[in-house]
Specification:
Layout: E1 5-9, H1 13-21, E2 26-30, H2 46-58, E3 62-66, H3 73-88, E4 93-96, H4 99-108, E5 114-116, H5 125-133, E6 138-140, H6 147-156, E7 161-168, H7 180-185, E8 202-206, H8 209-217, E9 247-248, E10 252-259, E11 266-271, E12 283-285, H9 290-296, E13 300-303, H10 310-329, H11 336-342, E14 349-350, H12 360-372, E15 375-385, E16 390-395, E17 399-400, E18 404-408, E19 414-417, E20 421-422, E21 428-429, E22 431-432, E23 438-442, E24 454-458
Parallel strand pairs: 1-2, 1-13, 2-3, 3-4, 4-5, 5-6, 6-7, 7-13, 12-14
Antiparallel strand pairs: 7-12, 8-10, 9-10, 10-11, 15-16, 15-24, 16-23, 17-22, 18-19, 18-24, 20-21
Protein name: tRNA 5-hydroxyuridine modification protein YegQ
Signal peptide: 1-21
Pfam families: Peptidase_U32, Peptidase_U32_C
Length: 461
């Protein structure tokens, strides 16, 4: 079987270095102006981008540059000029979605590899062959495909590189082409400035008869100013049972949505016999399908998350690296990997469209291992006192004596139970409250104080 590339996100040099340390073969990053990530993106500076590409190549890794906006005319006018210095840095490929920009790049830099972004919505082998005919080197397939459909495309297009997403946030719109953020506060997701409106905190209220009439009289417009929405919160998904209450449009029921940071500004939502589904999707986790994807012959397995933390990249890269290596070695899938990913911040997990129907046994198998290995990121290794044999931990979340910790490192993870914590003066303390506080503890056997290290606390005994 062919060894697939493990492709990780990078919003900063720290994320890139972490990804490579924990097993990624390549990273993808983008400039704010021409990729779909404006925030939490350090690669707007040319010197930072140059350093990233240089370090990646020195390590024998690949660095792909995302340039996948859906541009308006103004960006077309500046694109080629702005990209001259960037292309001179020799990224390994440009990830692109817009046919016009692809045409311009192919004409100006015909030797520069182009990877077709998931934003292009490629769902069939005929589209793959079309893009191959215009010189595209790799297709990042739509997230809406099943494993069988991916296999069919592989069989029909044996000489085209194929890439699929295996982990990370899922958009509620088809392959990410969402309009919600642009509607709410004029920040266009397809220009890179998405405010993740689908993940805001919404409450659901039942409308009374008068409210329903007011809503309908407004032609379905929100009660309140939609452009005032702005604060990102925690997403919820609601499904209210069909019952009594105001109705219109052939018997559908009217509910009113209230976003958490804008109390009193109500927006109508209609419910039919299927229920009401409010915006949010679970996060993709397809690690249990890595073996099948390797067997199919997919060239690259991609992790989403350029705005996430280095800890997120470390955990995901480490887990998927092990899953790929196990698949190549003929070893069975290790279900403990599910639990290691459960500890990351997530909105609940799904394997997306890869497998349309699950057996009850399969579902219980996934759930059981997810719960038993659940953990919480609590800190980073910040220093080492060799004379005392103590390491310093900078806390991100609270932990204390008696907690079971996991030290996550490229060379392998180490578990230990905290029996003593000390402050900066060596005095014993019971608990570290988190949020930048620091403490010392004995160096656990097997932990390398010179290597990158993230610390998690197990939530189950």
């Amino acid at each position: 079987m062919k060894r697939p590339e493990l492709l990780a996100p990078a919003g900063s040099l720290a994320m890139m270095r972490t990804a490579f340390a924990f097993g990624a073969d390549a990273v993808y990053a983008g400039q704010p102006r021409y990729s779909l990530r404006v925030r939490n993106n350090d690669f707007g500076r040319l010197d930072t981008l140059a350093a990233g590409i240089r370090e990646a190549h020195a390590a024998g890794k690949a660095f792909y540059l995302v340039s996948n906006i859906v541009p308006h005319n103004a960006k077309l006018r500046t694109y080629l000029q702005d990209m001259e210095e960037v292309v001179a840095l020799a990224p390994d490929a440009l990830i692109m979605a817009d046919p016009g920009l692809i045409m311009m790049v192919r004409e100006r830099w015909p030797e520069l590899p182009v990877h077709l972004s998931v934003q292009a919505n490629t769902t069939n082998w005929a589209s793959v062959r079309f893009w191959q005919s215009v010189g595209v080197k790799r297709i990042i397939l739509s997230r809406e495909l099943s494993l069988d459909e991916v296999a069919e495309i592989r069989d029909a297009c044996p000489d085209m590189e194929l890439e699929v997403f295996v982990h990370g946030a899922l958009c509620i719109a088809y392959s990410g082409r969402c309009l919600l953020s642009g509607y709410f506060n004029h920040r266009d997701p397809n220009q890179g400035s998405c405010t993740n409106s689908c993940r805001w905190d919404y409450k659901l209220h039942e409308a009374d008869e008068n409210a329903a009439g007011d809503v309908h009289a407004c032609g379905g417009a929100p009660l309140g100013n939609p452009t005032d929405f702005g604060t990102v919160g925690t997403a919820t998904r609601s499904g209210a049972a069909l019952g009594g209450g105001p109705r219109h449009l052939g018997g559908s029921k009217v509910w009113l949505l209230e976003e958490g940071s804008r109390p009193g500004e109500l927006m109508p939502a209609e419910e039919d016999e299927h229920g009401t589904y409010i915006l949010n999707s679970r996060d993709l986790r397809a690690i249990e399908h890595v073996q099948r994807l390797v067997e199919i012959g997919v060239d690259s397995l991609k992790i989403e998350g350029r705005t996430k933390s280095p800890y997120y990249v470390a955990r995901t890269a480490q887990a998927y690296r092990r899953a790929i290596d196990d698949a190549l070695a003929g070893r069975a899938f290790d279900p403990t990997l599910l639990g290691e990913l459960e500890g990351l911040a997530n909105r609940g997990y799904t394997d997306g469209f890869y497998q349309r129907h699950h057996t009850p046994d399969h579902q219980n198998y996934l759930r059981g291992h997810s719960e038993s290995g659940r953990s919480l990121y609590v800190g980073d290794l910040a220093g080492f006192d060799a004379a005392r044999g103590r390491i310093e931990i900078e806390a991100r979340n609270a932990f204390g004596r008696g907690d079971r910790l996991e030290f996550v490192q490229p060379g392998g993870n180490v578990e230990t139970v905290v029996d003593r914590l000390e402050d900066a003066n060596g005095n014993p303390i019971e608990r570290l409250p988190g949020s930048g506080h620091r403490a010392w503890l004995a160096l656990p056997a097997g932990v390398d104080p010179a290597a990158p290290c993230f610390i998690a606390r197990f939530l189950a005994p």
